[in-house]
Amino acid sequence: MAESGKIDPMHQFAIEPLFGTDHLSIGGFNIAFTNSALYMVAAAVVLWIFVVGGMKRELVPGRWQMAVEYMTGFIKSLLIANVGEGGKKYIPYVFSLFMFILLANLLGLLPLGLVGLHPFTFTSHFTATGVLAIMSFSIVLAVGFYKHGLHFFSLFVPHGTPALMVVPLFFIELVSFMVRPFSLGLRLFVAMTAGHVLLKVLAGFVINSANASPALGLTVGAASFILMIGISALEVLVAVIQAYVFALLTSVYINDAENLH
Amino acid sequence: MPQIAQIAETYSSQIFWLLLTFGFVFFVIGLGMVPKVQATADARDAKITGDLDAAKAAFARADEAEADYRARDAESRAAVQASLAKAKVEAAKASEAKLAAADADIAGRINAAEARIKAATDAAMAEIETVAADAARDMVARISGVNASEDAARNAVKAALAHG
């Protein structure tokens, strides 16, 4: 992998077992508690704290309750807009998905390096995003076949298709359907990875240029640092947008399963 | 790229912990807590729409009451006017009747008075005849020395009075 001096921009994605759990395993499969797992637990705990704060169930909500209800209301309107009234029953799943990814993205951006910790973004691993994508895709398949049976295959033949085109179109639509879990999982993984690599490369520029000479440090280093500020803000935006895109596409796919076309 | 380089050692741990944590998030938070939060928000929305509906209904009832009041007002006005007109008609009739009675009374009194005047006139005429007959007998006696009978004198006076 690309090395810039002694700083490896890919090292941030390395998974390391923590607390000596290297060889923890179930049925021969390693389940070491890694830094990645730590951030998954952190995202779950932070989300739990966030939602618990909104459980006061007051008629006139406080700020915290308002924030939690805003998030559930946001997911509700997302589902109603994309799926219709039948989409309300997916609120728990899409809310969990959206908030879990959002918190994972944001927690991975926290500047914990300043206090010597190593922030980790598990959504930059396709093993994690892939599981989430396959989960969403499985729900789509399960709901589609449960609600429509074999009629679900009519999803692959749009209305008004000429008879001659039915077979080729069926396969094209089938391929585009089967690609969904990959695009869903890879999009999140790529967006997170790219942003973090970019930040680390620029940070390497700052450090290496400053180490090389003061003149370089004040020109290249300062310019890179200013650029990093902007990109950090952009990364926060990307963290939110990617979580939103994941939830949005999941609800769009659920719409296919619920209502066909 | 550790994502690919480490995949063999880490995939099972990644999948295990992700399923565990996301399972907690979905079952405890998503299924356990989110519906309650949503129910609170829905209850609030329902309360707001309910209150608005109640206010609208109250408005409608107020409008109804006003219309009712106006109708009853118009009704009682009409009733009052009707009884007023009736009273006027009755009063006019009563005064007409009284006027007629007074007229009849006055006419009766005038008739009686006229009759009395006629009687008096007749009596006076009769007296004048007697007086004239006496005077005529006196004049006849003084002029001719003949004593005219009372009947003759009276007849002569009657004839003279009749010829005017």
TrEMBL record, chain A:
InterPro entries: ATP_synth_F0_asu, ATP_synth_F0_asu_bact/mt, F0_ATP_A_sf. It comes from the Bacteria. Its main location: membrane. Keywords: ATP synthesis, Cell membrane, CF(0), Hydrogen ion transport, Ion transport, Membrane, Transmembrane, Transmembrane helix, Transport. GO terms for molecular function: proton-transporting ATP synthase activity, rotational mechanism. Key component of the proton channel; it plays a direct role in the translocation of protons across the membrane. It is found in: Cell membrane; Membrane. It comes from Sphingobium fuliginis (strain ATCC 27551). NCBIfam families: ATP_synt_6_or_A, PRK05815.2-4. One of its GO terms (cellular component) is plasma membrane. Pfam families: ATP-synt_A. It is a multi-pass membrane protein. Belongs to the ATPase A chain family. This is ATP synthase subunit a.
TrEMBL record, chain B:
The keyword Transmembrane applies. InterPro entries: ATP_synth_b/b'su_bac/chlpt (IPR002146), ATP_synthase_B_chain (IPR050059). The keyword Iron does not apply. It is found in: Cell membrane; Endomembrane system. The chain crosses the membrane at residues 15-34. Keywords: ATP synthesis, Cell membrane, CF(0), Hydrogen ion transport, Ion transport, Membrane, Transmembrane, Transmembrane helix, Transport. It is a single-pass membrane protein. Its main location: membrane. It comes from the Bacteria. Belongs to the ATPase B chain family. F-type ATPases have 2 components, F(1) - the catalytic core - and F(0) - the membrane proton channel. F(1) has five subunits: alpha(3), beta(3), gamma(1), delta(1), epsilon(1). F(0) has three main subunits: a(1), b(2) and c(10-14). The alpha and beta chains form an alternating ring which encloses part of the gamma chain. F(1) is attached to F(0) by a central stalk formed by the gamma and epsilon chains, while a peripheral stalk is formed by the delta and b chains. Component of the F(0) channel, it forms part of the peripheral stalk, linking F(1) to F(0). The b'-subunit is a diverged and duplicated form of b found in plants and photosynthetic bacteria. F(1)F(0) ATP synthase produces ATP from ADP in the presence of a proton or sodium gradient. F-type ATPases consist of two structural domains, F(1) containing the extramembraneous catalytic core and F(0) containing the membrane proton channel, linked together by a central stalk and a peripheral stalk. During catalysis, ATP synthesis in the catalytic domain of F(1) is coupled via a rotary mechanism of the central stalk subunits to proton translocation. This is ATP synthase subunit b. It comes from Sphingobium fuliginis (strain ATCC 27551).
